[in-house]
Amino acid sequence: MSGRSSTLILGATSDIARALARKLAGQGVDLHLAGRDMAELDALRRDLMLRGEVAVSIHDFDVLRDDSGLSLLEELPRLPDVAVCMVGLLLPQPEADAGASERVLRTNLMAPMLLMSELATRFRRRGSGVLVGVSSVAGDRGRASNYVYGSAKAGFTAFLSGLRADVASSGVHVLTVKPGFVKTRMTEGMDLPVALTAEASEVADAILVGIRRRRNTVYVRRVWYPIMLLIRSIPEAVFKRLPL
Predict the structure, then answer these.
(1) What angle do CA 47, 48, 50 make, to 5 degrees?
(2) What residues are annotated to the active site?
(3) If pLDDT is split at 50, 70 and 90, which confidence band does 94 have?
């Protein structure tokens, strides 16, 4: 068994997850990659092993399967030092009927919350570990254009904040990452503002910096912090009339 540090990535086939995995492999970090598409995971595993002498395990994981999270933790070769939750689902607001809304809420909030809680319990028992939750600036204030997704991310952000406080004295740290627009397959075809749109590698770099410096919350790009501060300060009577 390797004595190197290890990282578990949940939702490992996303563009941001791939960028993070490649950077970690280059640093000699062993990886546990969890996702739904085993063929994609295997291709990524082979690519990563060419980039460095690291151990890479792949795991069938579907956040919407009730038993998937606990089964995953039981089959890991060892408890990782870092766990990064990148699972997410973004649907256009007009499609957010009851069934779609439930999928968005379960994918972005309910299932990640339960799995991160279990990881926190195991990390606390060990006395060390870092939990990273990728939320979104969309959770900073509800907007008409994506309030179901935003509600899920707002809940996830609140959960991570409470969890961070709960484990603060145990040697476990919780990092919240809030990207704005990111150029990925999930946003392909969207008309995104260039100045506010990050590359997947930028988000990966921000995660690594946040872990290293034990930050509580990281905005990607950093310009989103003052933007969201301004948006949160707009009176509701005015805000509800804005085309956001």
Answers:
(1) 70
(2) 149
(3) low
